[in-house]
Amino acid sequence: GAGFFRQQLRTLRFVCIARAGHPHFRGELDIEQFLGASFIDYEPAGGTYSHFLERANRVFVEHKVQRRVAVKLAHLPGIDKMIAATDLVAVVSEGAAMSMAGAASLQVLD
């Protein structure tokens, strides 16, 4: 009979973005900074980001830290302007971060 198969075509890498000049982030991100950040939570429909979020939430639980989410968004447009105007950070795919960093005053942290 007809069958379906699943094949991973590429691996997405996720990074944090913050405004350039953010008082707590300067190009690098350590675990304490990540745990202490206030987030814009970008939750697109679909699987890849939810897998990342599951793993990230486990890190917060393991460190007994409550994740601070200031805003939840379902779509990416406009997130760069929100990040550039605040001290919030977001986790997005590396490709999205690189395209946004060129247009807005953002830094990519990994």
Give your account of this protein's structure:
It is a single chain. The chain is an alpha+beta fold and 110 residues long. 35% of the residues lie in helices and 23% in strands. The protein is built from 4 helices and 5 strands, in the order E-H-E-H-E-H-E-H-E. It has helices at residues 31-36, 47-62, 79-84, 94-103, and strands at residues 14-19, 38-42, 68-73, 90-93, 106-109. The strands form 2 sheets. Strands 4-1-5 form a 3-stranded antiparallel sheet. Strand 2, helix 2 and strand 3 (68-73) form a beta-alpha-beta unit. The longest helix has 16 residues, at 47-62. The termini are far apart. The relative contact order is 0.30. The mean pLDDT is 84.
Helix-strand layout with pairing:
Layout: E1 14-19, H1 31-36, E2 38-42, H2 47-62, E3 68-73, H3 79-84, E4 90-93, H4 94-103, E5 106-109
Can you write the helix and strand succession as a string?
EHEHEHEHE
Helices, by number, come to: 4
Strand content: 15-25%
Helix/strand class:
alpha+beta
Can you list the strand order of the major beta sheet?
A: 4-1-5
Low-confidence stretches: none
What value does the average pLDDT take?
Answer: 84
The N- and C-terminal alpha carbons lie at a distance of: 46 Å
Attribute tags:
5 strands; three-stranded antiparallel β-sheet; alpha+beta; globular; 4 helices; 110 residues; two-stranded parallel sheet; single chain
Concise overview:
The chain has 110 residues and is an alpha+beta fold. It has helices spanning 31-36, 47-62, 79-84, 94-103, and strands at residues 14-19, 38-42, 68-73, 90-93, 106-109.
